[in-house]
Amino acid sequence: MSVFGLTEDQLAIRNAVRTFARADLAPGYLERATSTEFPWEVHRQVAGLGVLGMLAGPDHNPLEHDDYVAAGLAIEELAYADFNVANAVIPVMLMSSLIAAHASPAIRDRWLPPLIAGETYIAFGLTEPHSGSDATALRTTAVADGDGYLLTGEKTSVTMLGHAEAMIVTAQTVRDGENRGVSTFLVDLSADGLAKSDIPDTGWKPMGRGVLHLDGVRVPADALIGAEGSAFRSVLGGFDFTRPLLALTGIGCAQSCLDLTADYVRDRVAFGEPLSRFEGVSFPLAEHSTTLEAARLLCYSALWRRNEGLRHTAEAAMSKWYGPLSASAAVKDCLLLHGNYGYATEYGLEQRLRDVMAVEIADGTAQIQKIIIARERYGRDFVPYSKA
Prior knowledge:
The chain has helices spanning about 10-25, 30-35, 40-50, 70-80, 85-100, 105-115, 230-235, 240-265, 280-305, 315-335, 340-345, 350-355, 365-380; strands at about 120-125, 140-145, 150-160, 165-175, 180-190, 195-200, 210-220, 225, 270, 275. By secondary structure, it is α+β, with helices and mostly antiparallel strands. It has three domains: about 10-115, Orthogonal Bundle (Butyryl-Coa Dehydrogenase, subunit A, domain 1), CATH 1.10.540; about 120-230, Butyryl-CoA Dehydrogenase, subunit A, domain 2 (Beta Barrel), CATH 2.40.110.10; about 235-380, Butyryl-CoA Dehydrogenase, subunit A, domain 3. Strand 9 and strand 10 (about 275) form a beta hairpin.
């Protein structure tokens, strides 16, 4: 990142979200985190700050232009107070940016205003039982049929499926018996031919994940997001900004744990001294402060490069590998430094650990990120992952 200072607009966004998050979100985190109910009222309050429209184009963005650094600042501040509320924002940012840039007027008019107002939710269906990060191996098909398409297949690990009204689905497109490549479609989840099931998780409970089965689901032609066969160009490039945003949710949550732990060890006395006086306590906090700062800078470097129109796929993958790894390690040590209190459900550290571990998996594991980094830095023939 070449410029370390923040603009006045970026500072204003960060300060507004920080004030709201720490005063209004933080006190209710644990209650929300242990419930399977999605906090719609809180989601709408976040929308009221303009956060949900930050990447939805000038007509909906409070800054009047897409600013990925500002989006990262908002996400990190939300995650400091409530990890799950922050993570629910990221798919909205991705879906709204895709709809604003690539959807038909009918889709934009129907779905974009309520989406960024926090009144509805659109999930994203990419992962399948036989293909996770290998998007070229999709088995879901969209067969052109008359004035629309018939979608058949299965999507798994769909975040927010139980709360969404629609979903953007990726599928191998078939026209006149020929494969035309991977396309994306907006599917109304009230359509015929759909069946949903839940995936019980140890964290992310307010959002939830699920499996969607599609059996000949008909969608109109204007449900196509972008051109036929253009998913890799118009949709999947969005991962280059969602990956650092996801990492920042872990970093924000871990930072709040470090701050909480610093206060605790300053007050807790053992052997006649505050715990903070012992190197076995203070050194881990110093180490995690360092690794979190390094991870944070990786994230904002990737987001700044996107703002500048520079290639940032490697930086996004670096942030997604290193950020969640650093965050999980920090939260775990904070739990241990609290001793038996840290393991108790009433204090929330064990809940934060279960929540934060999820970002080590979402949008590609560390192993996938390292493959991407090697490919980007040393060439597509350097690793056996060169189709996408």
